[in-house]
Design goal:
GO terms for molecular function: hydrolase activity, acting on acid anhydrides, in phosphorus-containing anhydrides; metal ion binding. It comes from Blastococcus saxobsidens (strain DD2). By secondary structure, the protein is α+β, with helices and mostly antiparallel strands. The chain contains 7 helices and 13 strands. The strands form 3 sheets. Strands 1, 2, 3, 4, 8, 9 and 10 form a 7-stranded mixed β-sheet that branches. Strands 5-7-6 form a 3-stranded mixed β-sheet, with no helix packed on it. Strands 11-12-13 form a 3-stranded antiparallel β-sheet, with helices on one face. Strand 12 and strand 13 form a beta hairpin. The chain is globular, with a radius of gyration of 18 Å. The two termini are 33 Å apart.
């Protein structure tokens, strides 16, 4: 069979400094979801064609710089950065945008903001339209390239996903507003991986691996400064069955045990 063409997608590791150190915002997808139901993941999703709107207000690294970072075309890079910002607002209520003078918008939790967030979800409003209405610009400088994963060809539903990292803006709070999740939490990477080991927090290999990468950083500043060499090399695992379980095997030989079955 001909492998399915991967869909372009963006996901964001939203970070903050908590009492135990670095924390990341995680969503547990509802079990009824057609893809990765019951799995813990980051805010993110597929590209909306309007994410490539060239009229959007923008400050920070330009699309051509993001294209170099992820080894893709400039239009695709523009779409991915916009998708990262849009999905973070849709799923976590956090907006990586600011005024043209450089100030980051401090609070986006009011009823008027919620109305526009809902309009984004229904696709009645584009990200470019929201920012223009508010007199804001997208802040691509708040994002960092972090990883690039492509679903293996054997899977019927495939995504070409670029992972970004971003600090929670001062004055904003991540909120459990996603209709696609039944739990949202700030956890240290080590705590999330410990729950994976006990079987209480299943997750896909890209989430497992990127959480493992985060464990090496003591705080947000260090994590954002530790961006990988560019262009970020894509990872497409293969699967291997052994007597002690099923594994995702990465190109460098790293083996990740696939998520345990969900509790009944």
């Amino acid at each position: 069979m001909t492998p399915a063409e991967p869909k372009q997608a963006a996901t964001v590791l939203l970070l903050r400094d908590g009492r135990p150190g670095l924390e990341v915002y995680l969503l547990r997808r509802t079990r009824g979801m057609p893809f990765a139901g019951g799995m813990t993941a980051y805010p993110g999703g597929g590209v909306d064609p309007r994410d490539g709107d060239t009229e959007i207000g923008w400050t920070g690294p330009a699309p051509d710089q993001w294209a170099a970072a992820f080894g893709c075309g400039e239009r695709t890079a523009r779409e991915l950065v916009c998708a990262a910002v849009r999905e973070t607002f849709e799923e976590a209520g956090v907006l990586l945008a600011g005024l043209p003078d450089g100030a980051v918008v401090p609070d986006v939790s009011g009823d008027d903001w919620e109305e526009q967030r809902q309009a984004l979800l229904s696709r009645e409003l584009s990200l470019a339209g929201l920012l223009a209405d508010r007199g804001l610009v997208l802040r691509s400088d708040l994002l960092r390239p972090f990883a690039h994963w492509i679903t293996p060809p054997v899977e019927p539903r495939r995504y070409d996903t670029k992972f970004f990292a971003a600090a929670l803006p001062v004055g904003q709070e991540a909120r459990d507003v996603s209709g696609e999740a039944d739990e949202a939490a700030w956890l240290s990477p080590a705590a999330a991986l410990a729950e994976l080991e006990t079987g209480t927090r299943p997750m896909m290999p890209p989430t497992t691996h990127t959480l493992g990468q985060l464990t090496g950083f003591p705080d947000v500043a260090t994590a954002l400064a530790g961006s990988p060499p560019q262009p970020v090399q894509p990872i497409s695992p293969r699967f291997e069955d052994t007597p002690d379980g099923r594994w995702a095997v990465l190109p460098d030989g790293t083996r990740i045990r696939l998520a345990v079955p969900l509790p009944s």
